[in-house]
Design goal:
single chain, alpha/beta, Rossmann fold, two-stranded antiparallel sheet, 10 helices, globular, binds adenosine-5'-triphosphate
Length: 231
């Protein structure tokens, strides 16, 4: 769809296009349209901007992901089409695999998501393996990869469904999510919830992680010593 940049809802309409295009390409499930619509409604109410509360959660999320031993980024069809480049960037920054995990079972769609991420530069995309599952979950999302979610201590799961967020926690994992609905079960169950649009939150999360990674203890000590020596 050709949307003029001057349109007051330009970003929102372009984002809708990405999701619709994802459905046409078989990357996003048709149910993903409904999930996106729910997100849009909350975004509208939040003023379509990153709140101070969300900024604080992004800081906590950056720290938790950086301190994790085995972080993993769980990807569904909506996240894959909305922020593929950012997911790949986060994966590289954290040295964490991307793991495809979808609610509506389809091997074909799983492979399409993997290929889509690889097209955007992903080098380590895992698929669920029916030989491995997490406990406390009945849906297709229980199947996991032994090199990814199964052994992860921190799972980053943007646009999650509540059942799985809860199951991941019961399996002893920390869950970081992005969800525009602060009332959803995911938002309520996760260890850290970033209540923001994934399209705005991902670049901010990446920036924060890059900033934290630059922390240099020696440099900090030098700066303190310099103050003392100046007396
Ligand atoms: P739950 O199972 O957690 O109670 P739900 O049934 O509403 O929630 P789904 O429909 O599986 O969950 O997932 C959609 C969730 O993703 C919604 O909470 C919606 O607000 C959120 N969401 C949709 N699009 C975005 C987006 N672009 N950025 C952030 N969150 C989004």
């Amino acid at each position: 769809m050709k949307v003029p940049k001057s349109h007051p809802r330009y970003i929102s309409l372009k984002t809708r296009d990405l999701i619709a295009d994802g459905v046409e390409k078989g990357i996003t499930s048709i149910h993903g349209l409904i999930a996106h619509g729910r997100g849009e409604a909350f975004d509208y109410l939040l003023g379509e901007k990153t709140t101070d509360a969300a900024k604080k959660s992004i800081e906590a999320a950056a720290a938790m992901l950086l301190l994790a031993k085995n972080p993993v980024i769980s990807v569904n069809g909506n996240a894959a089409v909305l922020v593929p480049k950012e997911l790949v960037k986060l994966s590289n920054l954290l040295n964490a695999p991307l793991e495809v995990n979808i609610f509506h079972q389809s091997k074909q769609r799983e492979i399409k998501i993997k290929k889509h991420l690889e097209k955007h530069g992903a080098r380590n995309v895992l698929l669920p393996d029916k030989k491995y599952k997490i406990k406390f979950l009945e849906s297709n999302r229980k199947y996991v990869n032994p090199h990814g979610i199964l052994k992860a201590d921190v799972v980053f799961v943007p646009l999650e469904d509540g059942d799985r967020a809860e199951a991941l926690i019961k399996n002893g994992k920390k869950v970081v999510t992005i969800d525009l609905n602060p009332l959803s079960r995911t938002a309520q169950k996760a260890t850290i919830t970033i209540v923001d649009n994934i399209t705005r939150a991902m670049p901010l999360l990446i920036k924060k992680i890059q900033q934290y990674k630059k922390y240099d203890n020696k440099k900090s000590l030098k700066q303190s010593s310099k103050i003392i020596k100046s007396f």
